[in-house]
Input
Amino acid sequence: MKFFIDTANLEQIKEAQDLGILDGVTTNPSLMAKEGIKGEKKILKHYVDICNIVDGDVSAEVIATDFKGMVKEGEKLAKLHENIVVKIPMTKEGIKAIKYFSDKGIRTNCTLIFSAGQALVAAKAGATYVSPFIGRLDDISTNGLTLIDQIRTIYDNYLFDTQILAASVRHPMHIIECAEIGADVMTGPLSAILALMKHPLTDSGLAQFLADHKKVNG
Ligand code: G3P
Output
């Protein structure tokens, strides 16, 4: 399972990269705005800065909502760095743009996926990744993991090579359950990744080992 971090914060990306287990980064317009990145020049530079930190795919989202605008923006984003994946929303225009990019060999991430039907259409258009937002489904009392399971079954039935990128991951159990189902990738906050490593028995076990060693070795 690939681990992506869902942020535009360079410090957090560096911290995650330093762990040695990071496979990529996802961003979106809200995450870029959270870092105060504004204006096209600065936004494009920020994507390059991210690409220079992480050795893996970096999703950069288009703002245009029409086919022509998405193509223009996506082509500019794709030229920034070989790691860029053009992130495109799940709309009719978005699907046309994904098909266009897929035919040109430009990688895409179809975002804002909330149903299996949307994921099926995105795979048929040739999306490299689909991003089902599991946390946001949980927020409205719908099980986000059920959607991951449905998409896994559909993609396996037809051998689609589109990767399931479980997004809007909020906590470590989301990651573990996505891994059990067979999501190809998860993206979430650094805190959820760090929480996977924690266990009280690890902490107390290590404290005991060190205390016993000190008893004999001083
Ligand atoms: O990758 C999707 C993500 O940014 C949405 O997460 O927590 O805002 O639902 P969240």
